[in-house]
Amino acid sequence: MTLKNAVKPAQPAQRYDTPLFRPGRCVATLGLDNLICQGTINPHELLQRHICGDPGELANTKLVMLARDLEAARGQRLSAFLVNSEYVWVLTSADWSVTKLMLPSEWRAQ
What we know:
Elements: H1 3-6, E1 25-28, H2 30-38, H3 43-51, H4 61-74, E2 77-83, E3 86-92, E4 98-102
Parallel strand pairs: 1-4
Antiparallel strand pairs: 2-3, 3-4
């Protein structure tokens, strides 16, 4: 076996550029709307990433578990994006009628 055969090539980064679903009506919570008005967050970019299947930075174990629970129990899709040291959550309802952009502190289980 040569060194060339022993080392696997790096996997290309996953691309998220094809929409997987329609987001329905898009809404933002008051806290996120304030950040949008200040120009610190671009909601269009985050929404595009979300509907193309990009889960964002779901590194936090509790957040990964929440995303899996929402998907399994309710069919909802959650993405979490770190923007300027602030997490932004994007959550689409199971029937894809509404996608909400929010700060984690504004989320309540329903």
